[in-house]
Each structure stands twice: as C-alpha cells, then as structure tokens.
C-alpha cells in the first residue's frame, strides 16, 4: 500500500474539479486531480469560447483550464496526474492504530497504479448522446449546433437560425431562440424533419411557435453540411432536393453521466431529467452524497449543467469537505488526549 494518503482524490479536471482543488488549496489540503476521466473528454470540447463566466467570458476552455491549473499549482498541495481511473473502493480503517479516520478510498488506474485519499470527489461530468439518424450531425456539433442559447447564439444572432425537431418542449426552445432575433436574422425556422403529428399537444405547440413568428419546415432532412471557413453556419439539405443555409441550429440531445462504472461501484443513485439529462440524486449541501466521504460536483451533480454552476459547486464541496476533515482531526485529538487525573 502507498504510504501517502491524500486529503482528497478528485476525478476530473474540468471547472468543477479545478474549483474544488482551488478551495482545498486555500486551506492547505493535499489532493490528487486526475485529469483524464475514463471514456470521456471535456463536455465543451470543440467549443471555441465559453460564456457566462465572470472575467472569463469568451475565453477558450483550454485556456481557462490552464489558467486555473497555474493558480492551483502555486499553493504546492496538488498533484495533477494524467491517469484514467477505472475503479474506486472505500476501505474501512476499523479505528486502527494506523489510521485515526473512519475510512479512506483507493483509486486504481488503467495501468494498475493506486492512490489513496480520505475523501473522493467525482467531477466526471456528463456527455451528450448525439443522434445517428441525421447525416452530418456529428460534424456540426458543437460548432454549428448549439444546445444552450444562454451559452451560445449571441455571436451569430445576426444570422437566420433553425430549431431541430418538434415537440411541446421545442416550443420552449422557440421562445428562447426568439429572444435572439434581430432585424437581419428574422424568426427561427422549425425543422420538424417530417410531418408533425395531429395531436392536441402538438397542435398547441405549433400554435405557440407560429405566434412567435417561427416558420415551420416539415421536409425530411437528408444531411447537414458545415460551412467552410471563413464562412460559418450549416446548410440543411432536404430529401426533396431543396436546401437552406442557417447561421446555427439549436438542439438538445440527451446527456448521460460519464464514468458510470465508478458511480456504480460507489453505489450512487442516478435520476434523469426529461430535458436536462442524468445526474446523481439525493445530494446534500456541497455535493455530499449518501455514500460516506463521496462528493459529487459539476454536471454530474445537477440538471443545470453550465460552467458557472460547476465552478460554484466545486467551491461549495471544498468547504463542506474541509469541515468533515477538520471534524475528524478534532476527534482524533480528543481521543488521543490523556485523561486528566483528579
């Protein structure tokens, strides 16, 4: 067994994991940040800019992560390890003479290396499940297909836009897209990718989007072709031979949690929001889970998946985690203190 037991093992080096590490650094807690979660990259990979982050609006995500790592490194209490963690298990100490805390965690990477920490933080995030029935979808994601108009859309609001698919939930997307309408763009076009079912809910949604001024195109989509630089946007080709060029499309594919194997090993429960996707359920303040010593931060912890929220959740987790460590250390002092004689 390795001789070092860190205060925390942080799996994931996106905004949530880095924010947790920074908070713990401020109170001199030791930790390892694993920068390569198994089977998943960064959710905003391929995005040129991140938005809605004070002082870092329009910053490239990779630049943001590097700035954050530089800030954390200067404290001297963090190791960044480029490793894929394949398994995590909790080990009871049974109040042995060797350990004063009740348990610790052992993380194993793909190469068989082991790390040990008193607490574990899952900052493993989530990933989109892209549709496979529309040729060219993957080639346009995320540069020309935006899943969140709070995050993207403003820079191309002078261009015409489209909303992929149609359902009652797409009526809400139309309301958001309508906020970005400019004189040159005009209202967004609904691309239903086929006839709209004649049901009460669909007709009500159709009435809503038409009230918003949206055009409706029911043609079957044949393929999506990204524009070549320096042009931007996507050309939508239909099965009947017609096409239209749009500045961007809006679509929200389902999200699932990354690193499901570790989530299962720690016996954490998952719930799914119909629009926002999967997240860990029953988390307390600071992302504290029902599993002792396990914290969840970032996209895995909430249906509201955004960079600013991830940063906040990491800071909160660092505070609660630190309180747990301090309480355990205090208990050790009280237990080891000699009984005073009368």
Automatic annotation (TrEMBL):
Enumerate the spans annotated as FAD/NAD(P)-binding domain: 6-159
**Which key words are in the record?**
Flavoprotein, Oxidoreductase
Determine if rRNA processing is one of this entry's keywords. Answer: no
Q: Which InterPro entries match?
A: FAD/NAD-bd_sf, FAD/NAD-binding_dom, Ferredoxin-NADP_redctase_2
Q: Which family does it belong to?
A: Belongs to the class-II pyridine nucleotide-disulfide oxidoreductase family.
Protein name as annotated: FAD/NAD(P)-binding domain-containing protein
């Amino acid at each position: 067994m390795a001789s070092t037991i860190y205060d925390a093992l942080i799996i994931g080096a996106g905004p949530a994991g880095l924010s947790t590490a920074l908070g713990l650094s401020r109170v001199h807690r030791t930790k390892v940040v694993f920068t390569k979660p198994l089977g998943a990259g960064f959710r905003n990979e391929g995005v040129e800019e991140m938005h809605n982050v004070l002082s870092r609006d329009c910053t490239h995500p990779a630049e943001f992560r590097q700035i954050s790592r530089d800030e954390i490194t200067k404290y001297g209490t963090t190791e960044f390890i480029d490793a894929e963690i394949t398994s995590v298990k909790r080990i009871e100490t049974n109040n042995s003479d060797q350990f004063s805390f009740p348990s610790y965690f052992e993380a194993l990477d793909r190469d068989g290396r082991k790390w040990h920490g008193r607490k574990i933080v899952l900052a493993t995030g989530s990933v989109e499940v892209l549709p496979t029935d529309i040729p060219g979808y993957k080639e346009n994601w995320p540069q020309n297909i935006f899943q969140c108009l709070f995050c993207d859309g403003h820079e191309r609001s002078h261009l015409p836009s489209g909303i992929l698919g149609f359902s009652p939930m797409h009526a809400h997307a139309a309301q958001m897209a309508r906020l970005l309408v400019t004189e040159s763009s005009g209202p967004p076009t609904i691309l239903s990718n086929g006839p709209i079912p004649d049901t009460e809910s669909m007709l009500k949604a159709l009435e809503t989007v038409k009230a918003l001024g949206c055009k409706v195109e029911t043609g079957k989509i044949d393929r999506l072709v990204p524009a070549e630089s320096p042009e931007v946007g996507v050309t939508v080709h239909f099965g009947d031979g017609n096409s239209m060029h749009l500045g961007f499309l809006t679509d929200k594919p389902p999200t699932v949690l990354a690193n499901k194997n570790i989530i299962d090993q720690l016996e954490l429960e998952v719930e799914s929001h119909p629009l926002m996707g999967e997240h860990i359920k029953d988390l307390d303040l600071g992302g504290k889970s029902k599993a002792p010593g396990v914290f969840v931060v970032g996209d895995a912890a909430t249906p509201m998946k955004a960079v600013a929220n991830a940063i906040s959740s990491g800071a909160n987790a660092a505070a609660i985690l630190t309180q747990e460590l301090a309480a355990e250390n205090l208990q050790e002092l009280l237990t080891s203190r000699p009984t005073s004689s009368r």
